[in-house]
Amino acid sequence: WQLLDLPWEDVLVPHILSYLPLQHIVSLQRVSKHFHSLVQVYLANCRTFNFSVIGPSIPKEAFRAMLKDNKVLQNLSLQNLSDWVTDKELLPVIGQNQHLQRVDMSGCASLTRHSLVAVSLSCTHLQHLGLAHCEWVDCLSLRSLADHCGGLRSIDLTACRQLKDDAICYLAKKCSELKSLSLAVNANITDESVEEVAKNCRGLEQLDLTGCLRVRNQSIRTLAEYCPKLQSLRVNHCHNVTESSLDPLRKRNVLIDVEPPLPRALVLLQDMLGFAPFINLQI
């Protein structure tokens, strides 16, 4: 017996090729016509494509060829293709893969709102979506996502600077099962968004507000009241958020990315003096 005599879809694809790195599989199809056919069967049945393991040098033609017959994708990561991937390449893939649960388009600056609308219309079972640094994401396309993907569990909207409170509030009302949300690096986001997220997404576990300069203590207190499962809160560079609102969360062991005032002062003093001073806290 030879390797290719084994059943392809029952043995070779699930028990051998599925354990090989994607770049090795791509190279394997150059061995012979039979191996090329085997790889095509594998690619058509592959449920996860993470192009970060191949690198940004993959040409458009190879991207199209790899995904042209696949209709069972569940996980698609495009991060390493961000330099060139456009709607023209992505829309056919989205259109024929209604079972996608996780899509990461972070940094894909050449896409447009049409890709997000396509995802929302085709992938109604979507649970995880990465849109960090996609400045083309606007309020209307996010509303479309919220209307059709109510089961969303996590979304990264870091530096999606077109978004304002009304879009985030709409998302919170429609996607109440959110567990992880990033609104970082968006100067348009205010307490209104944070409070709406807190009141509607009570199972929230992770929230990133880094650099949201208009967020204040009021919404952090609301977050503490309505989100008992919160595990992580990022508020670095949120200059209007102070320890008075963070302290109740610290007492619940919520991981917060800014130090409390006293330890931070002690560290600075230690750096200045070269040793840790003894301070009698009972005075």
Radius of gyration, in angstroms, nearest whole number: 23 Å
Neighbour order of strands in the largest sheet: 1-2-3-4-5-6-7-8-9
What is the averaged pLDDT score?
A: 90
Q: Give the beta-strand count.
A: 9
Q: Any low-confidence stretches, pLDDT <50, length ≥5?
A: 279-283
Derived from helix and strand composition plus strand pairing, the structural class reads alpha/beta
Distance between the termini: 84 Å
Approximate shape: elongated
The percent range for strand residues is 5-15%
| Helical segment count | 12
The largest sheet, given as strand count, sense and whether it forms a barrel, is: 9 strands, parallel
| Run of helices and strands | HHHEHEHEHEHEHEHEHEHEH
Q: Which percent bin holds the helix content?
A: 40-55%
InterPro entries: F-box_dom, F-box_LRR-repeat, FBXL15_LRR, Leu-rich_rpt_Cys-con_subtyp, LRR_dom_sf
Domain F-box: 3-39
Subunit structure: Part of the SCF (SKP1-CUL1-F-box) E3 ubiquitin-protein ligase complex SCF(FBXL15).
Pathway: Protein modification; protein ubiquitination
Provide tags for this entry:
repeat, alpha/beta, 283 residues, disordered C terminus, 9% strand, nine-stranded parallel sheet, F-box/LRR-repeat protein 15, 9 strands, LRR_dom_sf, F-box_dom
